[in-house]
Design brief:
about 450 residues; alpha+beta; six-stranded mixed beta sheet; four-stranded antiparallel beta sheet; binds ligand BES; binds manganese (II) ion
Length: about 450
């Protein structure tokens, strides 16, 4: 049966390409920017299109509203005795500034086998790749039931995802979850993450006046909110080494094991390749092991933006009345967003009581398993589709919904991402490519066929 099952796969993948490209173009054309309230109507359009895609291949699908953006759920149940896989992707995207792109960000532009557009690789392309594989499995009678969860709030911290999971729990029983929203080590080196960092972002705001004042008239007496915010930031962390100076910040960090670091380095994690892939002209370290530790297993403190003062041409000799700093910290297992935020806020306000510290997005870190029958299936599928064994890594990025699903669905979660470092995650000229898409279809079809054979027994009812 397995031989027949895979017989049509190569021709299916070739035949499916125009449809894949058309759907990716339609999805990219809807600017589903979840962080920007002006795009709320686009999110609704995106959710409706997503339902159309699912129903077209036989799913029952619906838009589930939340207090924030909706979630699209679908199911394709062949037989209650078959195992069920739940596939998670997010269809919201980061904002994009058209002035900085070489092509319009919300218009899919194909060049060779690359697909340029906001969300092409994070995460609309991988979502459609999984959908094409699902269609094949369904058309070839694979004894596996499918459920889909397409989130539209991932890029803004999955704020209402837990409410959604709790409300819909009865419809979400599953034997396992597949998440495709992560990045390989490099092209040709597949990576399966078993961990994700958490995150808490926050803003500092300081107001010391009403409007700009002349720095000759008031300079020396007036406080400078921009300068003070910079000082506070440097009290929080050493910008050269990255070391966080907030007392207690590292106390609960669960240290990475030497064996894990060995395996990250052995899997081909290389400082030179990393710097090149991300276009970094210099880094805090060039040591492979130290680099792996820093991006996979240590918390960070970052300054994303500083607002205030004069930024036009030339220099304007004013003292600004207010300033804002946008910051975040990535968290590793052992740390929690609320606790970490409280530590930082307390530290800042002890020294600078008039600075307003307000929280933004938050999500918990995640650490899963990298053994067991689903992991074996993922290894076999990677070998089959890409001709090599995957590296087991921890991702430096965050996916808030993964921890929520692990907590409530109580089923094994496998992260099989398809993005490459060169795809420009969150950056200008973001793209996906047909090599990853076609290999990805093969990967998922093989993975589905493997997990269809795994004995049931994981289903837990709420
Ligand atoms: N797909 C990424 C997460 C990711 C990043 C996985 C890098 C692997 C490597 C996801 O879409 C994302 O960008 N998440 C946000 C979450 C945040 C807003 C809570 C992130 O990591 O900043
Ligand atoms: Mn993503
Ligand atoms: Mn993202």
């Amino acid at each position: 049966m397995k031989h027949d099952f895979f017989n049509d796969l190569d021709s299916y993948i070739q035949d499916t390409r125009p449809g894949f490209e058309k759907q990716l173009a339609e999805l990219v054309a809807i600017p589903t920017v979840s962080t920007d309230p002006d795009h709320a109507a686009d999110i609704i359009l995106g959710a409706q299109l997503a339902v159309t895609y699912l129903t077209r291949i036989g799913f029952t699908a619906r838009v589930v509203p939340t207090a924030g953006h909706p979630v699209v759920v679908g199911e394709l149940i062949g037989d209650a005795s078959w195992p069920t896989v739940t596939i998670y992707n997010h269809l919201d995207v980061q904002p994009a500034d058209p002035g900085e792109w070489q092509t319009p960000p919300f218009m899919l532009t194909t060049s060779d086998d690359k697909y340029f557009g906001r969300g092409a690789t994070d995460d609309k392309g991988p979502a459609l790749t999984a959908l094409m594989a699902t269609k094949y499995a369904h058309e070839h009678q694979l004894p596996l039931n499918f459920k889909y969860i397409w989130e539209f709030e991932e890029e803004s911290g999955s704020t209402h995802f837990e409410d959604f999971i709790v409300a819909e729990r009865a419809a979400l029983d599953t034997d396992s979850v597949l998440v495709s929203d992560s990045v390989w080590i490099s092209a040709g080196r597949a990576a399966i993450p078993y961990g994700l960092r958490g995150l808490v972002s926050f803003e500092l705001r300081l107001q010391t006046g009403r409007s700009d004042v002349h720095s000759g008239l008031a300079g020396g007496a007036a406080r400078n909110p921009l300068g003070e915010l910079m000082q506070i930031i440097i009290e929080c962390y050493d910008a050269t080494t990255g070391h966080v100076k907030v007392p207690g910040f590292y106390d609960s960090v669960q240290p990475v094991t030497e064996a894990e670091l060995d395996s990250f380095v052995a899997s081909g994690f290389d400082a030179k390749v990393f710097a090149k892939a991300h276009g970094l002209s210099s880094m805090r370290t060039v040591d492979n092991r130290d680099l792996a530790r820093r991006v996979m297993a240590e918390p960070t403190f970052e300054v994303h933006g500083l607002l205030g003062g004069y930024t036009g041409p030339g220099i304007k000799n004013i003292i600004p009345p207010a300033a804002t700093a946008k910051l975040s910290t990535r968290l590793v297992p052992g740390q929690h967003p609320e606790q970490t935020f409280d530590l930082i806020k307390k530290f800042i306000n002890q020294k600078h009581p008039d600075v307003v510290v307000s929280p933004g997005d938050a999500c918990e870190p995640y650490l899963g398993a990298f053994e067991g029958s689903y992991t074996t299936a993922a290894i076999n599928a990677t070998n089959y589709a890409f001709g090599s064994t995957p590296a087991f890594i921890r991702e430096g990025g965050s996916i808030g919904s993964v921890l929520t699903m692990a907590h409530h669905l109580k089923a094994p979660i496998i992260l099989l991402g398809l993005s490459l470092p060169s795809h420009g995650y969150h950056s200008v000229n973001e793209h996906y490519d047909w090599t990853q898409a076609s290999g990805g279809i093969k990967l998922f079809v093989k993975y589905f066929s493997e997990i269809a054979d795994i004995k049931r027994g994981h289903i837990t009812s709420s």
